[in-house]
Write a structure and sequence with these properties.
244 residues, alpha+beta, Aminopeptidase, 11-stranded mixed β-sheet, 11 strands
Length: 244
């Protein structure tokens, strides 16, 4: 039985198995789908159970000579991608709340130092943004005009903020979180992640937390906040030729 909701499982199955299955070999499945968008024309998903799913356009699969023959492994697949000059963007960890953890989350009482932010918080949010680096702002992608925004306060000062934006046509909502350097290590980020996730779950959305696999601080935050790793997700890099 899966740790995660049917909505999460169904989303990823549709993304990777919605086309024609060209190959199943051990723990590797390769599918082709002509409906993939330009920036998703090659994707790999390695789930926590050790299985890897790959999907790409039929034209690219043919170009890389990825037929239905025997002996295809993840190592061989990745080598064919490299030989074909198909570069993958750095892998993301993908985290969700398990169904059991989500039930606990929904029963938690609100924390008095946390609250939802609105347009009325423009001044306090601007002060918060001014206190962090441009790099941190870019990496976290936390914006006051996102679909859902929560913040943690020390007195009247906003010291940590998280925002969410739903995926188009899906009940998944990505989140970003950012804490002032002077207020880190006090548990603000994990509490804000849980608060915004609780609110999103109450609206029928599945909170989704993603970070690069080399960002161990962010991955540790996800786990501390109670999220479980679903897998690692890779998509084609913008550096690959558009003709591929």
């Amino acid at each position: 039985m899966s740790l995660f909701s049917h909505e999460i499982e169904n989303f990823w199955q549709a993304a990777f198995l919605g086309g024609e299955i060209r190959c199943r070999e051990g723990k590797l499945t390769l599918a082709v789908n002509p409906a993939l968008s330009e920036d998703r024309r090659v994707m790999l998903l390695a789930t926590a159970d050790g299985h890897t799913s790959a999907v790409m356009t039929p034209a690219l699969a043919d170009q890389l000579d990825l037929g239905s023959g025997q002996g295809l492994t993840e190592q061989v697949l990745r080598q064919k991608l490299r030989d074909g000059q198909v570069a993958l963007h750095g892998a993301d960890y993908v985290f969700y709340f398990s169904e059991a953890t989500k039930r606990v989350l929904l029963e938690e009482a609100p924390v008095h130092t946390l609250r939802q932010l609105t347009a009325a918080d423009e001044a306090v949010f601007a002060e918060f943004q001014a206190a962090v680096s441009e790099q941190d702002l870019d990496d976290a992608y936390v914006e006051l005009d996102h679909w859902l925004v929560f913040g943690a306060f020390e007195g009247e000062r906003l010291v940590c903020a998280a925002s969410m934006y739903p995926w188009e046509g899906q009940k998944l909502a990505d989140m970003g979180v950012l804490t002032l350097a002077s207020s880190r290590g006090r548990g603000h980020a994990s509490r804000v992640v849980r608060a915004i996730s609780r609110h999103a779950c109450g609206l029928g959305y599945q909170p989704q937390y993603r970070c690069q696999v080399d960002n161990q601080v962010s991955a540790a935050l996800a786990r501390t906040a109670g999220l479980s790793q679903f897998g690692t997700w890779e998509v084609i890099s913008p550096d690959s030729a558009e003709s591929l």
